[in-house]
Queue: 2 jobs
Job 1
Amino acid sequence: MLRHNDDLVCQQIVEIITDYLEGALPRSQRRRFEAHLEGCEHCSEYLEQMRLTINLTGRLRTDDLTPVMREEFAALYRRMSSQGA
Amino acid sequence: MGLIPATAAARRARRSGAAAEDDRELLARLRAGDEQAFVLLVARHNSAMLRLARTFVPSVTVAEEVVQDTWIGVVRGIDRFAGRSSFKTWLLTILVNRARSTGVREQRSVAIGDGAAAVERSRFNSAGAWMSPPQHWIEESDERLFAEELTGAIKSALDELPSRQREVVTLRDVEGLTSHEVCEVLDISEGNQRVLLHRGRSHLRAALEQAVRV
C-alpha cells in the first residue's frame, strides 16, 4: 500500500517522464508513476504529447546530396586514392 | 489520437536495420577501393553528419570542413573499423572528436521558459497539480498537412535548443540511435544523456503546444 504522501504530483510527473519512457525508473517509482497516470487525464495527455513530439522529431529529414556534391565527393575520393590513402 | 501512425517507430527500426546491412556491404566495397561505394556512403550519412557537426561549430562552412575531414579519416582508417559498433556510430564518434578538436564551440543560449523546468511552474498550483493543464491536440481534418506544419515547428525549436541538448535529441530522435550509442558518440554518461534528452524533448513539446494553439 502506498502512503498518501508517497504519491507523485503532476509537477513531478512531467520531470520524470523521460526516465519513464526510457525505462530508467526504479520499479517502485514506475508503479507510482503509472498509478498517478491512471487517475490523471492531464498527465496522460501530457505523456501522449511527449510521444507525439518524439514521433514528429523522427520525421525530420534533410536533403539528399546534390549532383554537384556527389561529384565533389567522388573527386575527393580520387584525390585520396592517388595520394595512397 | 491518430495524428501519427503508430508504426512510425517500427518503420524507423526496420529502416535502420536495413541501413546497417547496406553499410556493411558498402564498406566491403570501399575496402576494395570502389569509388561509387564511397559516394553512396556519403549520400547516406552526410546530412546526419552535417546536422551534428553544426551543433559543435559556429558556421556551416566549418561544419562542412569537419564533415569532409571526417570522411578523409574514414577512408584512411577504414581498416581500424572493427565492427563492434555500427558503422554510423563509429562515423559519428570520429566526427564528434574532430568537431571538438576545432576548439570552437558554438555559443547559443535561449530562454526556455521557467529555468530548467519541463513545464512552467506557474501552470501548477502550490500542491503541484495542474492548474493550466495541457489541452488535447485535436485531430485536424487534413492530418497530413497538419503534421507537416508541426514538423516545421519542431525543426525551428530544435535549432534553438542549447547545443548539448540538440546533439542528444538529434542523435536519439532524428537519427534513431540508441541511448547507448549516443553515450558512445558523445562520450557522456547515461544519466547525463537522459537529462539532456529530457530538457530537449520537453522544450520541443512546449514549442508544439504553442504551434497547436495558434
Note: Chain B is about 65% helix and 0% strand.
Job 2
Amino acid sequence: MSNPATRVNPVVRPATGLIPSRVPGSGGGFFRSRAVQIIGLALIFVLGLALPYLGANSFTISLTSTILIAAILASSVNFLVGEGGMASLGHGAIAGAAAYGAGFASKQGWDVGMQVLLALGITLVVSFVYGILSMRTSGIYFLMVTLAVGMLIFGLASKYSTVTNGDTGIANIARPDFLGEYWQYYYFVFAMFVVATAILWLVTRSPFGASLRGIRDSESRMRSLGYSVPWYKVGAFMISGFIAGLAGLLAVWHTHFVSPTSAGVERSIFAIVMVILGGVGTLLGPLIGAAIVVLIENVLSSYVDRWQLVLGLVFILVILFLRAGVAGGIAKLVRRIRGRTTSPSGGGSPPPGVEPASNSNHTTARKETA
Amino acid sequence: MMSTKMSARGRWAAIAGLGVATALSLAACAPPGASTGEPTTAPTEDPGKATGTLKVGFLSPTSGNFAVAGQEMLDGWNLYWEENGNEVGGVTIETIAEDDAGNPETALTKAHKLVEQDGVDIIVGPLIASTASAVAQYTSGLGIPNLHPVAASNDMTQQNWNEFTVRTGSMAGTQSTYPGGVWAAEQGNKTAVTLCHDYSFGWESCAGFVQGFVDNGGEIVQQIWAPNTTTDWAGYASQVQAALASGVDMVFVATAGGAPGPGFLTAYLDAGGDLDPLLLNCCAADQGTLRAMGDRIIGLKSVSYWAEGRDAPATQEFVEATIAKLGIVPGAYIAGGYMTASLVAKVIEEQGLLVGSDLVDAITSFTFPDSIFGEVTWDDFNNTIMPVYIREVEKGADGLLYNVPIAEFPAVDQWLGKGAPADVRAIVPYDQTNQGL
C-alpha cells in the first residue's frame, strides 16, 4: 500500500533535461544516468576544445564564439525562468548596458581594465534596479516590468547620443591584447561559458537555489515559512544579471561594436526563444537553443531568403512536440531507450525524471487500490 | 540513501572541478600550438585575382524592417550587371549577396563569412547606419574596400571616416538637405517648422535644412520630432497645420524611406492640408511614396541628390531599363545600387582589375561626369561631391509619377558651405538640441 505511493513523483516538473537540477527518484538508475550525462558533457567539452584543430576556418570559429556568447545570455535567462519561474524580457538590455559601459570606456580612451570595471559596475546597478522594480511582481507583470526597463535602456542608448553616439553606435572597442587573435578569443569565450555554466549550476544546487524553486512553486508557502520572497528574487536577478552582463562584455569584445540594437527587445526575445528551444531549466538547453537560433540566423539565411519563417516553424514544432525543448527531448529519448533495456530485469526503480507513461501507471494503480 | 546522495554529489563536484581545471589549463596551453597550427594560416589571400575575377560581397537587409530598401539596393546593383554583362575589360564581376536583417551583429557575422569563407575582394553595403559602422571597422582593419550605395550617416565620412570606406551612391544626411534650406530661403520664406524622425538620420537631415535656412536669413520657429516607430501621423499633421495657420511660411519634413512618407502625407492631405508650403527630404518623397499616394501629390516638392525625372541620357536610360526589368520607376535605393555598379565598371574598364587601397584610390580620384546623378567626384574623406536637386512630382507621358528637378545645386560637398573643419574627428554628432547653429 505504501510502497507504490512512495514511488509516485511528488513534484511533476514540466521540464527536465540532460542534467535535471533536482534528481527525482534514487537508487541504481541514478548513477548510470549520470554516467550517460557525464559522457555527453565530456564529448561536448572535448569537441569545443578541439574545434580550432579540426580544420575549422576563422569564420567557423568566430561563429562558434557567437553561439557561446548567445548561450551565456540564454543561460542567465534560463536560470531565472527555470529556477525562479520568472521570464524576463529585459536581459538583452542588461547585456547591452554592460556593452555600452565597455564602449563608453573605450570611447574615452580608457584602458581595458576600466572597460571591465565600468561594464561590471553598470551591470550590477542595472540588475539591482531591475530587481528592485520587479521584486514584488510575478508572471505577466514581471514580464512587463522587465520589458519596460529594457525599453528604457534601449531608449537611452538610442537618444543620449552625446554619450552613446546614437544609432550609429560605438565602434573600434578594443579587447585585451592577449585575446587579440580570433582563436585566443574563442578559448576565452569557451572558458567563460564553462565558468558561467558552473556558477549557475552551483547556485542551482545550493540552498539558495532550493529556496528559489520553492518560491517558484508556491510563493505563499515560502512566505509563511519566513522567507523574504522579494529579496530572494532580487538576489536571483542580480546573479542572473551578472551573467547577462558578462555575455554583453564578451559580445562587445567579439564584435568591437555596440549600437542600440544590442540592447533591443529583439535580443531579449531571442534569448527566451533559445531557452524554450533548448529546454527550460536544463543545463545545456541554452547552448542547444543558441546554436539553433544563431545558425538559422547566420548560416541558413545565406541559402534561404525566408529564414525567419524557418525559425518560426522550428519554434512551433518544438513547442508542439518537444515541450521540454531539444535537451529535454534528448533526455527523454535516452530514458526511453534505457527504460526498454532495463525493464525486463525487474525495473524496481523508475528512471530519473518524469515519464508520463510510468506516471499514469502509478495513478491508475493508486485508483485501483483505493 | 542519504549517504549515497551525498557521495554522488561529492563525486559530481570533483568531476566538475576537474573538468574546469582541465579546460583552463588546456586553453592556456593551446595558444602556442594553435599559432603554429592551421587556424592562423586559414585566412588566405583570394586566389581569384589571377583569373581576373573581382569577388564582391553584397550586404543588405533583405529581411526585417528595412527589407524593401535593402532589396531595392540589391536590385539596382544586379540590374546594372544584367543590362551590361558582368564582364568589364576582361574582368568578371562575381557577386555574393547576403542578408544582414538590419542587425549590426548579423551584418558583422556575414561580413566575416564573406571575407573569410568566400574570399571577397570588396564589400558593398550595408544600408543602416549601425550596420555600416560595424562592418566598416572590420573591413578597414583588413584593408578591404567597403562601398556604400545608400548609407547616409554623416559620421561614416566625418568623425569615423577611414581610408577604405567610400560613399558611392548617396550623400551624408545633412549634405543632401542643406540646399533645401538654402532654396527655401531664396524663395522668400522667412519662417519654418521642421518635422523629422527622432533618431540619428532624422537629426542629421533636419540639421542640414536648418543650417541652410538660417544661414540665408530664415528663422526656425519650431522643431517637431516623431519617434521612428510612428505609424499614426494624424497628430503630427495637425501640429504642422496649426503652425501653418499661425502664420509660419513653410514646413520641412524628413523621414526614413518606406511607410512614414505616405503615412504623413495621407494624414496631412486628409485633414485638408496644402502641398505648397511643404518641402520633403529624399526618402519621404521617394518613389515608394509616389506609388502609394498617386495623383494626390502631384506638385509635391522635395530635396534630394536623386531625381528620376532628370532629362539626362544616362538617367533616362537607367529609368527605362528599370521600368522594363522591374516594372517600377527607380527610387534612391535602386539608383544607389546601380550607381555603385556603374562606378565599379567604369573604374575597372579604365584601369583594369584593382583591389584594396588601389581600388579605393582609383574610385576617389575618379571623375564621373555622366553618372545617373550627374557629375560626381570624391572629397578627401571618401564622400561624394555631386548635385542636389529641388524636385517636384509630375506625371510623365507614360502616366507614371516622377520627381522632376526644378532647381539644381551643382557639386554640393558635405561641409555645408563652410569648408572642412580642422579636425573632423572632433565633430559633435547632431541631436535634437544640437542642430549645428
Note: The radius of gyration of chain B is 25 Å.
